[in-house]
C-alpha cells in the first residue's frame, strides 16, 4: 500500500516500509514513534520503544529529532542494544564454554588483528600435526614475512555465517594474498587455509580470554543466549513492546534471525529500508534479504516520493531504477547534472565556489583529495613521520592516545575515549585517574590545541604531572614537537574524518548534502548506461552516492575513451571537458 511520509499507520501490526532515497523514511519513523507514544495502551512506565539504526551518527540525529519524546525510546545500534540488554547481564552463563573472560569485558570494538595472537594461534593450532606438504609448515607460516602478511590479510576478513542452524567462522580465501612493493604476489594455498580454518574459534578465544569482543561477537553471543534461554526473549518482549529497525537493507543474516526471534512474541516489529541502497554485502547483507523479509500479520507500505532532490537529479535516479519511479515532491527543476571529464582536483576547484562534498569509492582516493584540497597532511604520512622522529615508544604512544581520546570525547563518545586511555600504561584500568586526566584535558583544550604538539607535551608534564621523557634541546625530536601542529594530528582521528567534506560513499550513508561531486578513478559509467540495482552492488553504491545530493550533482571521470558509449546519457547530463 502506498503512503506519504506524513501518513499514520495502525500501531499494533508488524510492518515493512520500502521507499527510495530521500523519501522521508527516517522522518516517517520518528512520526510513527511519536504516534505510538501518544496513543499506545501497552507502554507503561518501564516499557520502551526500541529504535535500531545503523550508525552512531544516526542514533544522535534520531534522538535529537525525537526531542522530549526520546525518554521512552531506546535509540541505538543493534550491537549496543544487544550488548546492554543481553550480553552484559547474561553472557556469564555461557562464558565458560567459550573461554570468555566476562569480568574483563568492557564494551565491544572493531575487530582487532594482532600479529602476536596469530603467531600464538598457529603455534598452538589444534591440528598442528597436519602442517606438512602441501600444507605450509609452521616455520613457513611464521618465519616468512610474505606468508605472515598474507595470513594477516586473510584473518582480517574473519566473519560468522550460518551453516544450517549453527554459526561458524570463516575467512575469505581470495584475500590470503600479499603483494610486495616489487609486484611479487604471495598466495597461501587452499589446503593450508582449510586446515587453519578448522581452528578459527581457537583464534577468537585468544581475544575472548582477555575479555576483548568485537561487534560481530556481540551478535554471536546474543544469538547463542536467545537460542538457549527462551526466558531472555520474554524479558526483551516485556521490556520492548515495539521494536523498529531503520536501514534494514544492510542488516546481516544473524541480525535477521535475532529480529525474527523477537517478533515471535508480543513485540510489534517494523522494518524500514530500500533494497536498492543495500551496500554492505561484505558484512553479509544483501538486497534480497529485505525483499523477502516476512512476519506474521505484517502490513507492507511503500513511499514513492522523493523530498530531497531536484527534478533533474530524481530523473537520473529514476533512470537506474526498475521497480518504481520516484515522484518529485519539492518539484524544483534544478540544473542538469554534469559529467566532468578531467583531473579530479581541477574538477573540484572549478565547482568548489559553492559548498561541494566529494564522495569517492575508496579511502585512498579520499586521502589523495584531502592532501591536495584540504592542504592537510595525509594521515599515515604524519603518523609515519612521528614514528620516525620519536623513537621513545612510551612517550609517543602517550601523546598519540591522549590526542585520540581527547578528540573522540569531543565528538561525543566519552566512553570510547576512556577506553582509549587504557592503552596508556600509567592510566590502565584506573577509572578515577583516567576520568580526571581526560576531564582536565577537555577543560583546558584551548591551552594546547591551537598551536604545536610541544604545548600538549608541556601540559601533560607540568599540569597533569605525568613525567614523560625529556625532549632534549636542539634534538630532532624536539624540533618535530615544536613544528608539528596539534590540528595536523587531529586529522588522524576517524571521527574527525566524518566531518570532512571529502569522504567515502559508505561514510555518506543516510546523510544528505546540497552539492555533490562523485569522484571516479576510471571512465566506467556502467551504473548509468547499463544499470542493474538488483544484482550489482557497485551500481547500488553509486546510486546511494548520487541520491545524497539535494541541489547539484557532478560526476568526475579522469578521461573518456569512448565518448559514443555515453550518447544515451545526453538527455540526463551535461558533459564538460576540462583543459
Ligand atoms: N513529511 C515531510 N515534510 C517535510 N520534510 C520532510 C518530510 N519527510 C522528509 N522530509 C525531509 O526530506 C529529506 C529526506 O528525508 P529522510 O532523510 O528521512 O529520507 P530517507 O528516506 O531516510 O532517505 P535515505 O534513504 O536516502 O537516507 C530530509 O531533509 C527530511 O527532513
TrEMBL record:
Catalytic activity: Couples ATP hydrolysis with the unwinding of duplex DNA by translocating in the 3'-5' direction; ATP + H2O = ADP + phosphate + H(+)
Keywords: ATP-binding, Helicase, Hydrolase, Isomerase, Nucleotide-binding
Name assigned to this protein: DNA 3'-5' helicase
Native species: Intestinibacter bartlettii
PANTHER family assigned to the protein according to its UniProt record, in alphabetical order: DNA 3'-5' HELICASE (PTHR11070:SF3), UVRD / RECB / PCRA DNA HELICASE FAMILY MEMBER (PTHR11070)
UvrD-like helicase ATP-binding domain span: 1-310
EC identifiers of the protein: 5.6.2.4
GO MF: helicase activity
Amino acid at each position: 500500500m502506498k503512503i506519504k511520509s506524513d501518513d499514520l499507520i495502525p500501531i499494533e501490526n508488524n510492518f515493512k516500509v520500502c521507499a527510495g532515497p530521500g523519501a522521508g523514511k527516517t522522518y516517517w519513523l520518528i512520526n510513527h514513534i511519536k504516534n505510538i507514544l501518544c496513543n499506545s495502551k501497552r507502554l507503561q512506565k518501564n516499557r520502551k520503544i526500541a529504535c535500531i539504526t545503523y550508525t552512531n551518527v544516526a542514533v544522535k540525529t534520531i534522538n535529537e529529532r525525537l526531542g522530549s519524546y526520546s525518554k521512552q525510546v531506546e535509540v541505538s545500534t543493534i550491537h549496543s542494544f544487544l550488548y546492554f540488554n543481553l550480553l552484559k547481564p547474561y553472557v556469564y552463563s555461557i562464558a565458560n564454554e567459550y573461554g570468555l573472560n566476562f569480568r574483563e569485558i568492557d564494551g565491544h570494538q572493531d575487530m582487532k588483528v594482532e600479529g602476536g595472537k596469530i603467531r600464538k594461534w598457529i603455534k598452538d593450532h589444534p591440528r598442528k600435526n597436519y602442517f606438512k606438504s602441501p600444507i605450509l609448515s609452521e616455520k613457513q607460516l611464521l618465519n616468512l614475512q610474505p606468508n605472515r602478511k598474507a595470513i594477516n590479510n586473510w584473518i582480517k576478513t574473519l566473519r560468522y555465517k550460518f551453516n544450517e542452524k549453527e554459526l561458524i567462522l570463516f575467512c575469505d580465501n581470495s584475500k590470503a594474498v600479499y603483494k610486495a612493493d616489487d609486484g611479487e604476489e604471495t598466495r597461501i594455498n587452499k589446503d593450508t587455509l582449510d586446515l587453519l580454518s578448522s581452528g578459527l574459534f581457537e583464534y577468537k578465544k585468544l581475544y575472548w580470554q582477555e575479555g576483548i569482543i568485537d561487534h560481530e561477537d556481540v551478535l554471536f553471543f546474543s544469538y547463542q543466549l536467545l537460542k538457549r534461554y527462551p526466558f531472555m526473549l520474554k524479558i526483551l518482549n516485556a521490556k520492548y513492546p515495539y521494536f523498529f529497525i531503520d536501514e534494514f537493507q544492510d542488516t546481516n543474516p544473524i541480525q535477521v534471525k535475532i529480529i525474527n526471534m523477537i517478533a515471535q512474541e508480543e513485540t510489534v516489529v517494523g522494518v524500514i529500508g530500500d533494497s536498492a541502497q543495500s551496500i554492505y554485502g561484505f558484512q553479509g547483507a544483501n538486497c534480497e534479504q529485505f525483499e523477502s523479509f516476512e512476519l506474521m500479520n505484517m502490513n507492507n507500505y511503500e513511499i514513492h516520493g522523493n523530498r530531497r532532490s531536484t527534478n533533474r537529479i530524481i530523473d537520473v535516479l529514476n533512470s537506474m531504477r526498475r521497480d518504481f519511479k520516484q515522484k518529485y515532491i519539492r518539484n524544483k527543476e534544478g540544473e542538469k547534472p554534469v559529467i566532468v571529464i578531467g583531473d579530479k582536483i581541477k574538477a573540484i576547484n572549478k565547482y568548489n565556489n559553492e559548498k561541494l562534498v566529494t564522495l569517492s569509492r575508496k579511502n585512498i582516493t579520499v586521502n589523495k583529495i584531502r592532501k591536495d584540497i584540504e592542504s592537510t597532511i595525509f594521515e599515515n604520512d604524519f603518523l609515519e613521520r612521528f614514528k620516525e622522529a620519536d623513537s621513545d615508544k612510551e612517550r609517543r604512544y602517550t601523546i598519540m592516545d591522549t590526542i585520540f581520546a581527547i578528540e573522540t570525547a569531543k565528538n561525543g563518545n566519552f566512553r570510547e575515549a576512556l577506553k582509549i586511555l587504557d592503552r596508556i600504561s600509567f592510566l590502565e584500568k584506573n577509572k578515577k585517574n583516567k576520568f580526571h586526566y581526560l576531564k582536565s584535558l577537555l577543560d583546558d583544550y584551548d591551552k594546547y590545541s591551537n598551536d604545536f604538539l610541544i604545548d600538549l607535551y608541556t601540559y601533560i608534564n607540568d599540569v597533569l604531572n605525568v613525567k614523560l621523557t625529556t625532549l632534549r634541546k636542539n634534538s630532532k625530536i624536539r624540533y618535530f614537537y615544536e613544528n608539528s601542529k596539534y590540528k595536523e594530528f587531529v586529522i588522524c582521528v576517524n571521527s574527525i574524518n566524518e566531518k570532512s567534506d571529502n569522504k567515502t560513499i559508505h561514510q555518506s550513508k543516510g546523510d544528505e548534502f546540497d552539492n555533490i561531486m562523485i569522484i571516479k578513478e576510471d571512465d566506467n559509467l556502467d551504473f548509468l548506461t547499463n544499470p542493474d540495482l538488483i544484482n550489482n552492488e557497485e551500481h547500488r553504491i553509486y546510486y546511494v552516492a548520487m541520491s545524497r545530493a539535494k541541489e547539484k550533482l557532478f560526476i568526475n571521470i579522469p578521461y573518456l575513451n569512448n565518448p559514443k558509449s555515453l550518447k544515451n546519457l545526453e538527455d540526463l547530463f551535461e558533459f564538460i571537458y576540462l583543459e
